[in-house]
Structure of Anhydro-N-acetylmuramic acid kinase:
Amino acid sequence: MKPAAYIGLMSGTSMDGIDAVLTSFSEGRAVIHSTCTICYPDELKHRLIKLCQNQGCPDELGALDHAIGELFSQAALGVLDSAAAADVDVKAIGSHGQTIRHQPRGTNAFSMQLGDPNLIVEATGITTIADFRRRDMAAGGEGAPLVPAFHQAIFGSPGQNLCIVNIGGIANISCLLNTPTEQVYGFDTGPGNALMDAWCLDQTGKSYDENGDWANEGRVIQPLLSDMLSDAYFTLPAPKSTGKEKFNLDWIKTFLNRHPDTSPSDVQRTLLELTVISIAKQLPESADLKVYICGGGSRNRLLMQELRRACSPFSVNSTAEIGLDPQWVEAAAFAWLAQQTLNRKPGNLPAVTGAKGERILGAVYWP
């Protein structure tokens, strides 16, 4: 009998493109059979950014939902083509979609992802599961982060204190602790790459600062950093989640109005330090904690260097050290969530999201 496998499709708040993985799960391990990445065309990314800034209309919302759905379909087909030799039975696709707005608090809390799943199931003929966040939100949760349950299933190890840090546009942590009272918790710490990417694009025309090279030309401006760290989000108790509707270019410029004449490279270096400190300060206190990084931030050499400095004496390494390439962790998580849904098992952790209880997540689109 062929082993069951699932496809995970993920595009994060950095809006770089779509990561797709074909993976199976065995004895607490994720086995990656094939991968595929589709980058967003610059024009499409620009339209998404404008929509996130409330510059759009219902027609644009619908058009982008369709366009993103087409690209997600291509990513699923691409990973299937790459897996032609893999002798597996693909059970379902888990599609996160592209978040354009995440408002988890207030009377009318909501989270919106684009990427029409009907197009995915039509293109692939494979059961597709999407809209993972809103069931948790209907149960009083924040709908995010959802990956800690996956981190627990794949990385959890009895007798060890681990913290998995995903650094995408927004950074989130999953704390897997060997304590009798609180074994798993997690939340969004704040900006990951989002502010650095936004400032780099605004000032240089480049979508990101490769390896942190530009930031390395600048220096940390302590008064600016302290002012940014005074934002109430950083001391907000968990559960908490956020997005680019908060941490964006306008957020940066609000602080620069109070700190004029700061050089662009110094701003970039300070934004990198903001990501570092906002992660390090929210790690749990544990003498033997091991920290593992995944997401795009793991490829930023300066960011990783400064995280190791700020998190000392904790060790800081990539999730590759514990068996999963950091680029594919998030996509694999949504493959795992698809498996949970098909097996009628919960995908959320109430201690993480604040939901009233465990819930089976996602809407199922049958072929």
Q: What stands out?
A: The chain has a mean pLDDT of 94.
